[in-house]
Amino acid sequence: MxxxxxxxxxxxxxxxMGDSVETEKLAAAIEQDPKTTKKIIHNMMDKYQANDxxxxxxxxxxxxxxxxxxxxxxxxxxxAAQPRKYVLTDVLLESMAIVAYKQPxxxxxxxxxRGVKSDHAVNKLVEYGLIExxxxxxxxxxxxxxxxxEEFLRNFGVSSVAELPSLPVERLAEFQAEAEKEAIG
Length: 185
Hints:
Blueprint: H1 3-17, E1 21-22, H2 23-30, H3 34-50, E2 55-60, E3 63-68, H4 73-79, H5 90-102, E4 105-106, H6 107-114, H7 119-127, E5 131-136, E6 144-148, H8 150-156, H9 169-184
Antiparallel strand pairs: 1-3, 2-3, 4-6, 5-6
Helix pairs in contact: 2-3, 5-7
């Protein structure tokens, strides 16, 4: 299959699926190995950026998704129903950060770090599709383990949690001291 036809096939698959599609599945569809498929898709991503087009391909973990560029959002909402917006309060952002950096993590671990009950925050983050159940801890009661979702990656503009900024060790110690002070006071 020639390069242009492989690109067209990938584009058609990503457009039709709507959600992200794993590299392995795309590779099988165009009868190429995953490494070659990734190179083709990265080349397509460059073309979309260079040509100032209204769509782009996002890489999310080991998958790809076709989506609208952020700068054309205002044009899109003139035609489509306005997407549901949600507000991330400080409590939700704090809980989200704990899940993002400590995943997989249980609700109890989130509460221990925050020093307060976190049922509402965790439930809201699940409702918003930013975190999800990723398994169960092999412990009494088999508590649910939570991790981030592709929706989290899309909303925070990263292709994997490895791209999240790291905190210097001294800042972590400060945060821990503040949390302990708040829990006591």
